[in-house]
Amino acid sequence: MKQLDKFYVNGRWVAPAACTFADVINPATETVSGRIALGTPEDVDLAVLAARRAFASWSESSVSERLDLLGAILAEYTKRTEDLADAVTEEMGAPRSFAGHLHVGLGTWHLQAAIEILKHFQFEEQRGATLLRREPIGVCGLITPWNWPINQVAVKVFPALATGCTMVLKPAQLAPYSAQILAEILDAAGTPAGVFNLVQGKGSVIGTALSRHPDVDMISFTGSAEVGVQIQKDAAETIKRVGLELGGKSAWIVLDDADLAANVGKATGAMMSNSGQTCSAGSRLLIPADRVDEAVGVARSVAEQVAVGNPAGNVAMGPVVSGGQFDVIQRYIAKGVDEGATLVAGGLGRPDGLDSGYFVKPTVFLGDNSMTIAREEIFGPVLTMIPYKDLDEAVAIANDSNFGLSGYVTGADASEATAIAKRIRTGAVHVNGGFDIMAPFGGYKRSGNGREWGDFGFHEFLETKAIVGAAAAS
Ligand code: NDP
Fold first, then answer.
1. Per-residue pLDDT of the chain (474 residues; tens, 9 = 90+)
2. Does ligand 1 lie within 6 Å of residue 204's CB atom?
């Protein structure tokens, strides 16, 4: 049983101001796996004060000092990869092998990316008579969710460190273990006191205190649109920058060609990965109307073959994160049936043979884009197939969404797929499974603002200063 009863503030593990605890539940067993201390606004004040004091020197640190620190963090991170993977499996239920390869792997890749970018990043640039300087924005409040707990922390903490910012991290209550290990890693790597601080606890308390704090310069948030709106309201009074990475309802367009069956299979498998709890998931699968039967047959067969079970074992899908999330997903499945969508695979209840744990059946519907299951982010292993008559209609359906995070186009002709990708109003579109750790990640419309990942992620944490008429560097 884990006991997380200290916060990391000013380079030390300190007792919280008040002694209130919350249980952490293992979603595969529904048993208590540990307890975390719940912070108060007083803990936030101390962490922000430490970050403010540290900002004076860290913001002036040289690129080589920051590279040394990031290199030391990479060395410590590499030592702790097994611990991190165990933590992710225990806290949010990702299959252990998937947690190791992808959840923990993404942390490594973002850290390596930050190091490579920092080596060449232009913090100063002379433009005519003006010296442009990109300066760290200041003290950052980082608020993260549980679905990709290391990745979401990594895309904030590493660029913030690299750009000379100081920070207070508030991870999701449901997934506190991996963030705690990350704090141990930063401590072991010799991060200067106050540069990185960790306060665990409730979003409504810690997140609100950070968002409203007069000495926090920026909030970087990943999570639901509802909380994103609340953070913007809370941050408005102090005019702080708010970076938002919110939800999605992304379309995956399968082109009408010889690769259709293989691509429907890939899209269905991808939807079930991480139990469907991925903001950029292709949760609307757009298929040619005259090949519906073929596409439905492939999707059913793939969904029915997804191995669901104990994430410690050799499975493709573990549970969803919590009882609350399980109930939300069940309500969406029931709504899909009520609104007249055809159930292709899965449905209500747990998969056969699983009587406890928050396990959901890999579920596929055939429906249309007006249905709730096509409009709202379910955040579970539920795919909605939608037929299209021609490519103009496919693009129109893809763009008929309040969200604009991601998109997918797959087909034999990559040029045709790329031309379609250009017409989709989302922050990213993946053509034939393309993946790039350096590509910017973020959303149009209600999927948020700003961009994380790669050098775009650095700009999130930088202010631009113009020194007009600056003396030329000697
Ligand atoms: P939330 O948006 O509620 O939580 C994300 C983070 O924000 C958590 O750390 C949370 O704390 C914190 N938070 C909660 N309330 C506030 C507040 N008032 N001010 C500041 N921070 C706050 O996501 P949920 O975990 O509840 O998931 C709900 C839905 O959101 C999902 O079903 C999914 O649709 C979407 N979602 C999208 C994600 C994405 O990557 N785009 C990620 C996660 C969820 P606490 O731990 O206390 O809840």
1. 999 999 999 999 999 999 899 999 999 999 999 999 999 999 999 999 999 999 999 999 999 999 999 999 999 999 999 999 999 999 999 999 999 999 999 999 999 999 999 999 999 999 999 999 999 999 999 999 999 999 999 999 999 999 999 999 999 999 999 999 999 999 999 999 999 999 999 999 999 999 999 999 999 999 999 999 999 999 999 999 999 999 999 999 999 998 999 999 999 999 999 999 999 999 999 999 999 999 999 999 999 999 999 999 999 999 999 999 999 999 999 999 999 999 999 999 999 999 999 999 999 999 999 999 999 999 999 999 999 999 999 999 999 999 999 999 999 999 999 999 999 999 999 999 999 999 999 999 999 999 999 999 999 999 999 999 988 665
2. yes
DSSP assignment letter at 358: S
Does ligand 1 come within 6 angstroms of the Cβ of 247?
yes
Rounded Cα gap, residues 29 and 154, in angstroms: 28
Asked if 364 and 300 touch (Cβ cutoff 8 Å), the reply is yes
Pocket test for ligand 1, best of 143, 224, 250 (most atoms within 8 A of CB): 224
State if residue 182 touches ligand 1 by the CB under 6 angstroms criterion.
no
Identified catalytic residue from 76, 90, 91, 245: 245
Structure tokens at 295: 């596409």
165 is catalytic: no
Q: Whose CA is nearest to atom 25 of ligand 1?
A: 145
Specify whether 279 is catalytic. yes
Does 223 contact ligand 1 (Cβ within 6 A)? yes
Whose structure tokens read 């620190």?
Answer: 69
Q: Ligand 1 in contact with 147 (CB < 6 A)?
A: yes
> 193: which DSSP letter?
T
Is residue 408 within a helix (H) or strand (E), and if so which, with residue range?
Answer: strand 407-410
> Does residue 382 contact residue 342 with C-beta atoms inside 8 Å?
no
Distance 242 CA to ligand 1 centre (A): 15
Span from the CA of 23 to the centroid of ligand 1 (angstroms) = 18
Task: Provide the token pair at 166.
Answer: 């100081």
* Token couple for 438: 């350096």
